[in-house]
Each structure stands twice: as C-alpha cells, then as structure tokens.
Amino acid sequence: MNTIPSITVAALAELLKNQANVCLIDVREPDEHDAASISGSRLVPLSTVPEEAAQWPMDQEMYVHCKAGGRSARAVQYLMDQGFTHVTNVAGGMDAWLTAGLPVAPDCVA
Question: What is the 8-class DSSP label of residue 5?
C-alpha cells in the first residue's frame, strides 16, 4: 500500500483562496453534503467513485475530503491504485474544516 498524500484544511483553504479551478471531491453522502460543504466541492459519494473516476483525467490534480478523513483516504488509495498521479486526501475532512472555523458554502445549514 502506498503512502497516501495529504493536505491540512488550513493549506487547502489557502489553496482555494489563491488558485482558481481547484478540483475538490466530497465523498460523503448527499445529506452530509447538504448540512455543510466547502464552496466549489463536487459531491461524489464514495460508492460512486469507481464509476465517476472512469471519466476523470488520470493526471488531474484532485483533493478529496469526507467527514473525518477515512472515506477520502480510501477514495485516494483507490484512485492511486487505478493510476491517478495527483490525488490528495484532506486530513481531518469536514470535521477539521468546521473546527478550524473555515467557511462553508452559503446554501448549507451549518
């Protein structure tokens, strides 16, 4: 098993602030995403990652998050096993994002 690359929520927030078109994948379930999400994230529940990933460029830089980091780590490992070369897990996931007081998408209830 490869080491899973990761990024902190603070580093991700800085990246999102300074770089346009960051590919941020949220592998939580729709109800979790509706409660709180990061602006610009794309909801792709973990169970649908294999089907969705078949459409993604293998060399696209992607950041993957979930609630606490477990599901996103599994998604990143899966993508790496499929040959994706630039995928990064968001350490701590949405829990860490909220704990850090970082902004959520305006249409969320959190």
Answer: P
Q: Which residues contact 58 (CB under 8 A, 6 or more apart)?
A: 82, 83, 84, 85
Its pTM stands at 0.93
Give the angle subtended at the CA of 10 by the CAs of 79 and 4, to the nearest 5°.
25
Cβ atoms within 10 Å of 41's Cβ, excluding its own = 22
Which DSSP letter does residue 2 get?
P
User: Catalytic site residues?
Assistant: 66
In angstroms, rounded to a whole number, what is the distance separating the alpha carbons of residues 55 and 109?
31
Q: What is the pLDDT of residues 7-33, one digit of tens each?
A: 999 999 999 999 988 999 999 999 999
